[in-house]
Amino acid sequence: MKLAMVGLGRMGMNMARRLLRGGHEVVAFNRSPDKTERLAAEGADGATSLPQVVEKLAPPRVVWLMLPAGEIIDEHLEQLRTLLEAGDIVIDGANTYYRDDLRRSEVLAERGVHFLDAGVSGGIWGLKLGYCLMIGGEKPVYEQLVTVFETLAPPEGYLYCGPAGAGHFVKMVHNGIEYGMMQAYAEGFQLLEASPYGAGLDFADLAHLWNRGSVVRSWLLELAEDAFRKEPELGDVTGHVADSGEGRWTVQQAVETGVPVPVLALSLFQRFRSRQRDPFGDRVLAALRREFGGHAVVSPTDQAGA
What we know:
By secondary structure, the protein is an alpha/beta fold. The protein contains 15 helices and 8 strands. The longest helix is centred in the middle third of the chain and has 29 residues, at about 165-195. About 30% of the residues are buried.
């Protein structure tokens, strides 16, 4: 099948490569032309603009967007809305808020253009191992693209999740779970590191062990083993942990539907905490202990000299 990949970042570039290796024809476009040129050298048909992307595709056209979530997607869709024809298909593979899918699918439907939302998981390993795909939209449109999904995913690695928004909703919850799992591993290793036995433990070996029959085995533990093998004390990174949005949306959805998700919520809040240095709330706590109990406090001068 011939389709376009718009957005050649870490995910889009490797997804396009996997499609090319799977025998598909790929029209490639990225706002910075160097990435387009790089992929063209690997067999893609490079385009320099969205109008040229559309020109290079035959109806029914398929355009897969792998762009940062937010306004940039709306900007591209506004252009594509005037360029595409009835029967053409747009797929959004970004980490998009599912409610944006509902709005965008309605806008494109006014011109007869179909819209699929695809939650994509796999990260930088997807080129080699395949991408887990969670797809929402019209089922007959999904069925037209099964060969594309089969190429991108590992065996049994894609699923039709329901109407517009379903794919990104499932991906949102997936990422919320991911936050909780990562936090659990992080706290466990921190407890081990602070214990009387921490100095004698090889955390890479321990992560490897837990992936051999343990009930906590996972790919995340494989990645932890890799990280500990590279730098046993993780001295090459700081504890600043970003969040890309899905964790917030997961907790927001839980509040709206009255579903308790204490582990997922706390893992999100811990990420916020990781980005703070000497937060005001902690200074309030220290000041209150001093005021009611005369407890000693550590002044900024004392801390700087420590």
